[in-house]
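Risk register update: the risk of archive-format incompatibility is retired. Evidence:
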Amino acid sequence: MTGVLVQKGILAQSFQAKKRQSIRRTAIVDIGSNSIRLVVYQGPARVPAILFNEKVMAGLGKELSTTGTIGKASMALAVRGLKRFHRLCIEMEVDSIKSFATAAVRDASNGKDLLKAAHEIGYDVAVLHGEEEAESAALGVISGIPDARGIVGDLGGGSLELALVDQGKVLERFSFPLGVLRVADLRAKGQDALKGQVRKMLKKTGWEKQAQGLPFYLVGGSWRSLARIDMFDSHYPLPVIHNYEMEPRRAQRLVSRLAQLNRDKLKNVPGLSTSRIPTLKDAAWLLSMLVRYLNSSKMVVSAYGVREGLLFQSLSKQEAARDPLLLATEDAGTAQARFPANSKLLGKWIADIFAYDPPEWHRIRQAACNLGDVAWRANPNFRAERGLEMGLHGNWVGITGPEREMLGQALYTSFGGGNDIFPGGGQLASEQATKLAISWGLAMRLGQRLSGGTRNPLEQTKIRKTGKKLELTIAGDLIHLYGDAVAKRHGHLAKMLGLEPVMTGV
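Archived output:
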């Protein structure tokens, strides 16, 4: 009995440690050339959730190419925004505030005036050099897309940062004074002026051969806005932009589309910030030239950038190596589950049945198990929809669109959606993947019903395939748990797998 109490005590301590970690708040104030943004993060350092996000379109770099300074109106707007953000951080009781400035502040002759005002408000602003900004943006992409390999392009208002990434490392990085607010001046001199600048810029990188045919990762609000338009045009079934992929030819198509669309039509695009509309044409022209000259294999959107890169940079090697999807789903599951310590055990309990799944899908299955109890508070008639929403639209990274469909499908099935594909599903994931996700959901549903969401029944029972049978082995007095509801779910899973349900006692 003592051993059980000790084990429960260890579990309780672990849960409390995770709980403390989940309420820690970090604020980042990003003083960019186009916008100033406050983001407050809460949760595990590797994948903190966004608690609050607000921007002020100060346009600090708007007059940089003509006067070399930050305009008076932009300066005043920036100071007001910084005061509001600082007060919000106090009210939200954040544990730490990190602030940084980029191209406009480092290049403007009066950038020090803004830094002085920020210091008086209470900020300790780090002015990032161009290569530091490029490295942070690249680390942000690595944080959100761990297997990223290619060129990271971070388009800000005053500068463009490029970095080469591979195997979790930033290999080379460059910064160029070609932000979206400066492209318009080049285009006004004729299309050849912009082309010439892009060629000159890429020649400086020395990537003529090294970077050819690699993916191009898009960072920055202007390029994310372009991706929103492409998602809208292509009827993409998910509203989540992170890891959204586009063929290179879509960049030139966006140039053509923006020539046809007026402001009113652009307002109909879901998720598109109207403050970005004035610079979209310039952003599209630059993107189309870059992917053409780099011969990019595809364009991939990253929701993570400099801010997340700075957070990632501060992690230990052990923390940085953790899977962001599994960590985030585990944290979300712990916060919402009836019995928080059970998710990993549920994944282990069903693992033998799916041992021969493609290896890349094992982590998606475990992510589903991590979220396997998140809908219990919902109305019973809407638990399937609640699970689906968590899987499809959760703030996850390290996951593709097809994998999101698999995650959503598994949770939809697990919470009572039956054997059917969820409404609107099956558009991104293959038929094989969808069928497999339904099987995961049925297995999770069986495990949750058998155990009531508790640990001991899952530790003392085992389910496996033996020949043409789906055998559920139950030890000792736990045999009484095999009631009609459990037998029914056992049968549903076995039928889905083309097996015969068998229960044996030990």
